[in-house]
C-alpha cells in the first residue's frame, strides 16, 4: 500500500476535494439526501466543523476545522465515501467494478490543502461558493442549493447577490486554473 504524505496538524483547517469516478455523473445531487446523511453520520461520530461546502453533481469541495486533538481527515473522507457508496448500491445504482473487483463510485484519492492564514481561508471559501457558477451549473451563486453559501447569507457574512456577474473573479483571486 502506498503511503501518501498528507499534512498532519491536530486541530488544523483543511480544504478537501473528493470526486466520483464518473465525472459525467449527477449521482451526488440526484441522491443528495444519501450524501447528506452519510456526511452527518460521520460528523456525529468523528466530529469536525464545516467551514464551507459545496456539493456538485460529481465532486465535493469543503473546508473542515478538526478538533484540537485530531488530524485524521482521511478517515472521515473514507467513511463518507464508503457510506454513500453503500447506500446508493442499496438503491440498485450500477457501479462499475475496479480491476481488483471492488465497486465504488469514488476516485480512490482526494485533494487536500492545509489552510495557511486568513487570506488563504477567504480564497478557499470564495472558490468553494463560486464553483457551481464556474462549472456552468447556475448563473448566480445563490441559485445552487447544495452550498454553505446560503448559511453565510443567513449569518450576514455574504450578500445574497455575491458571486453574480463576474465569472473571472474567483480564478484570479483564488489562484486556481479556469
Describe the structure.
37% of the residues lie in helices and 14% in strands. Helix 2 (32-45) runs antiparallel to helix 3. The protein has helices at residues 27-30, 32-45, 73-90, 118-134, 149-154, 169-174, and strands at residues 13-19, 49-55, 59-65, 111-114. The longest helix is centred in the middle third of the chain and has 18 residues, at 73-90. The radius of gyration is 16 Å and the shape is globular. The protein has 6 helices and 4 strands, in the order βααββαβααα. A hairpin with a 3-residue loop joins strand 2 and strand 3 (59-65). Strands 2-3-1-4 form a 4-stranded antiparallel β-sheet, covered by helices on one side. It folds into 2 domains: 1-115, 2-Layer Sandwich (Alpha-Beta Plaits), CATH 3.30.70.1290; 117-178, no CATH class. By secondary structure, the protein is an alpha+beta fold.
Secondary-structure blueprint of this entry?
Blueprint lengths: L12 E7 L7 H4 L1 H14 L3 E7 L3 E7 L7 H18 L20 E4 L3 H17 L14 H6 L14 H6 L4
Antiparallel strand pairs: 1-3, 1-4, 2-3
* Percent of sequence in beta strands: 5-15%
- Number of separate helices: 6
Structural class, by secondary structure, is alpha+beta
Q: Just name the CATH architecture of the largest domain.
A: 2-Layer Sandwich
Q: Tell me the name of the CATH homologous superfamily of the largest domain.
A: Transposase IS200-like
The unreliable regions are 166-178
In which order are the strands of the major sheet placed? 2-3-1-4
What does the overall shape look like? globular
Distance between the termini: 33 Å
Helical content band: 25-40%
* Average pLDDT level: 88
According to DSSP, the number of beta strands is 4
Q: What is the CATH level 1 assignment of the largest domain? A: Alpha Beta
**What string gives the helices and strands in order?**
EHHEEHEHHH
Amino acid at each position: 500500500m502506498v503511503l501518501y504524505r498528507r499534512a498532519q496538524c491536530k486541530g488544523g483547517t483543511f480544504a478537501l476535494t473528493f470526486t466520483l469516478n464518473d465525472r459525467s455523473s449527477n449521482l451526488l445531487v440526484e441522491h443528495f439526501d444519501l450524501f447528506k446523511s452519510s456526511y452527518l453520520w460521520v460528523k456525529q461520530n468523528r466530529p469536525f466543523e464545516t467551514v464551507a461546502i459545496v456539493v456538485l453533481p460529481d465532486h465535493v469541495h469543503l473546508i473542515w476545522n478538526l478538533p484540537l486533538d485530531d488530524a485524521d481527515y482521511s478517515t472521515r473522507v473514507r467513511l463518507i465515501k464508503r457510506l454513500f457508496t453503500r447506500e446508493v448500491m442499496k438503491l440498485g445504482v450500477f457501479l462499475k467494478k475496479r480491476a481488483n473487483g471492488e465497486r465504488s463510485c469514488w476516485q480512490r484519492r482526494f485533494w487536500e490543502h492545509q489552510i495557511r492564514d486568513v487570506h488563504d481561508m477567504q480564497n478557499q471559501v470564495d472558490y468553494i461558493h463560486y464553483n457551481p457558477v464556474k462549472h456552468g451549473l447556475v448563473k448566480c451563486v445563490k441559485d445552487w442549493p447544495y452550498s454553505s453559501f446560503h448559511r453565510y447569507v443567513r449569518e450576514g457574512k455574504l450578500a445574497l447577490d455575491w458571486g453574480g456577474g463576474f465569472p473571472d473573479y474567483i480564478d484570479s483571486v483564488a489562484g486556481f486554473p479556469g
